[in-house]
Amino acid sequence: MVTMRTAAVPPLLSGLWNVVIGRDRAPAAPGRLLAAVFALTGLGAALFVYYDLADVDLIGPVAAIRLALAAAVVAPVALLPRRPLLAWRLAIIATLLDLPLDIAPAGLSWPWHPAQTLVLPALVLFVAVRHPITTVSWAALMTAAAMVVHLPTSQAPVVIAFVVLSAVVGDQIRRRVEAQRDLTAERKLTEVELARRVVLEERARIAREMHDVVAHHMSLIALRAETAPYRLIDQPGARDAEFVEIASASRAALNDMRRLLGVLRSDPGTAATAPSPGLAGIPAMIEAAGAAGLDVSLEPTGTMTATPVVEECAYRIVQEGISNATRHAPGAAIRVTVAAADRTLQVRVHNTDPDPAAAVSSGSAAGGGHGIAGMRERVGALGGDLTTGPSQDRGYEVRAVLPLHA
């Protein structure tokens, strides 16, 4: 009901409503130790006030009056950690209720004790730590007015400044705490999004690895199986050896698949760390492709050194380029170049115009795939550049420029 009624009024009136009858904002994690400390502090202040009032001239049940005044000190201080707004209300009400002259003929400068010059600003400070500035402004205004009534006029500016300072300090503390809370929430959200992104990137990486392994090995296996009857028609011994090579290529593909599946099934700390393929493995790949009947060659280059991730990217580009040429340009000559220039590693896979007769005999057909997209993601992740497309001799070319030390 309070929220509905204050939502329709201006902020200042809403603050007045809250400070008079609004609800206290419960602390995020009220501690029992803190509550016990304030309760003991209030008890100590009550004892001090009780014995300090012994010199005051009172009429009637003196002990009961002193006990009541002392108890009025305990309640607000004890309520501060959990209900600062309620504590402030009790203190303000008690401050405005002066003892009648027939009980205190000499009068009391404060209904409780002169120490209220510290207690009331402290209450404003705690209210400001928990409530918005509109509520705090009204609490500070009422507190200053209640204190000025009981003090000499010369002390009014100091009292008002003290109360305003308490309100400002408390409000700044509240803003800082809320900002830290929001920052913590944003950090948690960022961590969740980062973890999700890492998972997605790892899935994409494994998907690229699976694609490269399957596409390359299966393409060579299919090519060797399809062309063996034509290449080895009169060579029984070579034909038997060909099947041995096909079986070896199949086992290599299965081993690569098991390695990738092992990464998926294992915990990050227990997964096997098999060495990634690099530049040193490209000649063996070219040799295996040539043994399968492809017209593929590697142009001689000098000694090169690059980071493992760059070498693996270059290896996969050559692998995918040969696989694409095998599937989409059967019978074409494939030329692979890997060279270092201007602090970059330049990889080029070029195939000539496909042989129509080879296409018919092999039964290969062009089809859609994710090879180019995978290569583009690999190169882009390293900050390199990839270009693909038809070449001048009606063939096809894949060219990548990678930083040597990404």
Automatic annotation (TrEMBL):
Start and end residues of each Histidine kinase/HSP90-like ATPase domain: 314-405
UniProt entry tagged with the keyword Nucleotide-binding: yes
Q: Which reaction does it catalyse?
A: ATP + protein L-histidine = ADP + protein N-phospho-L-histidine
Span-the-membrane segments of this chain are 32-51, 58-80, 86-106, 118-141, 147-169
According to the record, the residues making up region (Disordered) are 353-372
Q: Keyword Glycoprotein: yes or no?
A: no
Q: Signal peptide: which range, if any?
A: none
One term of GO molecular function:
ATP binding
> Keywords, A to Z?
ATP-binding, Kinase, Membrane, Nucleotide-binding, Phosphoprotein, Transferase, Transmembrane, Transmembrane helix, Two-component regulatory system
Q: Which InterPro entries match?
A: HATPase_C_sf (IPR036890), HATPase_dom (IPR003594), Sensor_HK_TwoCompSys (IPR050482), Sig_transdc_His_kin_sub3_dim/P (IPR011712)
Q: Quote the EC number.
A: 2.7.13.3
Name the GO cellular-component terms.
membrane
Q: Where is the Signal transduction histidine kinase subgroup 3 dimerisation and phosphoacceptor domain?
A: 202-267
Q: What is this protein called?
A: histidine kinase
